[in-house]
Specification:
Length: 151
């Protein structure tokens, strides 16, 4: 049981590493590019995990490594996503922040429920990570296009 706690700590460390990367990169890279690039890292990690699971080659180090990399991408993209959400209309920043947090929790709950579907938890988790990453990537691309069209 103690090992599980250590593994979870590694995943939390991935989010922290991502947030440190975000703070370093935000001065050099546009927010839109940071979102798409960081989420691209998460999507790539999710598809590596999915491939490993489908090839029946999953090991603890591979699972932790791919999910750590996924977490680094999420940790890098999340601050930029929140900044973008709050910048749409500064007069309603509090409402935007609340909506962002509520949606984050709702999507997290949905993904957690979906990860428990089926007889193979590793496959379900890999599919949820890959699917949610693709949906996020599409959303970031569409939001970037809309913002450029409005400018």
């Amino acid at each position: 049981m103690a090992r599980v706690g250590g593994y979870i700590a590694l995943l939390v460390l991935g989010v922290w590493v991502g947030s440190v990367l975000a703070s370093r990169l935000i001065a050099r890279v546009s927010v839109g590019r940071l979102l798409v690039g960081a989420n691209g890292v998460s999507v790539a990690a999710a598809f590596v995990l999915l491939a490993v699971v489908l090839c029946d080659r999953l090991t603890v180090p591979l699972a932790i490594g791919t999910v750590f990399t996924f977490s680094v991408g999420v940790g890098t993209a999340a601050p930029a996503a929140l900044a973008e959400a709050l910048s749409v209309n500064p007069r309603v920043a509090g409402s935007a922040s609340g909506l962002y947090g509520a949606m984050q929790m709702a999507v997290g709950a949905l993904c957690t429920a979906l990860a428990g579907v089926g007889s193979d938890p590793a496959l379900a988790a890999a599919l949820v990570l890959a699917g949610s990453g693709i949906i996020a990537q599409a959303a970031f691309w569409m939001a970037g296009r809309a913002r450029r069209a409005a400018a």
